[in-house]
Amino acid sequence: MMSGVQGKPFLIMGVLNVTPDSFSDGGRFATPSAARVAALQMIQEGADIIDIGAESTRPGAQGVPLQEELDRLMPTLECLGQEIPGGQISVDSRKDEVFLQSAEFGVRWFNRVGALPAPEVLKAIARIDQAKVAMTHMHGTPDSMHIAPLNPEAAVAAVNRFFALVKEQADIAGLDPARLWFDPGIGFGKNLAANLALLGEIRKWTEARQVMIGVSRKSFIGRLFHIDSPIERDGPGKTIELMCALAGAGIVRTHDVKGLSALRQGMAGGI
Questions:
Q1: Are 51 and 90 in contact (CB under 8 A)?
Q2: Full-model pTM
Q3: 114 lies in a domain?
Q4: Catalytic one of 108, 218, 233, 264
Q5: Which end of the chain has fewer CB atoms < 10 Å from its terminal CB, N or C?
Q6: Does residue 5 sit in helix, strand or coil?
Q7: SS3 of 16, please?
Q8: Catalytic residue status for 253
Q9: Please, are residues 134 and 251 in contact by the beta-carbon 8 Å criterion?
Q10: Residue 65 — φ and ψ, nearest 5°?
Q11: Is residue 3 a part of any domain in this protein?
Q12: What is the DSSP letter of 46?
């Protein structure tokens, strides 16, 4: 089982949305100064990586033009680059050009949701020293994935096909497997039962892959525990995040860095 990253039970990836419409915190960190304060606080609380998204991928979200996404993202990267090393900054995007321009700012984590980057872009990333790629499965697109979500059997099969394709394309691009992460995309076009089934597959996947998981504040937690407010899902969400880490997930992506960091300290202490 893949576990123990950089001497820690797992890495914490803090979510930083510089968008006006993200489901949990849309608009709170839309200015570079606000994003800077939030990122530095997450680092202080224990985040190993800050994952910055400038286009919402929540269910029902509409895509934004390339230039609009860059206009949101680049000032934030420029601001953070003065204080946070590029090796601790991730960019969450569905656009190749966003990755390429982010690399020029020293970004070394590239978090892709949905379709793989073009082969030449994946090769370009593979040539960047210390660059890492996380690939997240999505059924459909943000504006359509909630219309006909996958059931458990279909979701597990689709994610397994996706993981195989990612591995094949990464090998062709020359990307070192140690720099490649796989995320089953909890909540991205799967129904409640499918999301639970995917969580049950983590231990098997980690036998051969580095797995990243993001469940923080997602609607399936709300449906499980009858909690409408995304931020109020942090309590039960922490339990699920801990279970994912215990199952072998090497990166856990979260909005609540402080709470997850406390649990990680407990794991390191032998809980």
A1: yes
A2: 0.93
A3: yes
A4: 218
A5: C
A6: strand
A7: strand
A8: yes
A9: yes
A10: -60, 155
A11: no
A12: T
Q: Which helix (H) or strand (E) holds 141?
A: none
- The rounded distance, in Å, linking the Cα atoms of 176 and 154 is 29
Each residue's pLDDT tens digit, 43-82: 999 999 999 999 988 777 788 899 999 999 999 999 998 8
Instruction: Say if residues 13 and 46 touch (Cβ distance below 8 Å).
Output: no
Encode burial over 246-258: b for 16+ CB neighbours within 10 A, e otherwise: ebbbbbbbbbbbb
Would 243 be classed as within a structural domain?
yes
**pLDDT tens digits, 90-125:** 999 999 999 999 999 999 999 999 999 999 999 999
- pLDDT mean for each 10 residues of the chain (271 residues): 68 93 62 93 97 86 90 94 92 96 96 95 96 96 88 98 98 97 97 98 97 96 95 96 97 97 85 54
Options 72, 95, 190, 253, the catalytic residue: 253
- Give dist(CA 51, CA 168) in Å, integer: 25
Structure tokens at 93: 């995007």
Give catalytic status of residue 190 as yes or no. no
| 6: in domain | no
Residue with token string 């969580």: 199
Range of the domain at 235: 11-268
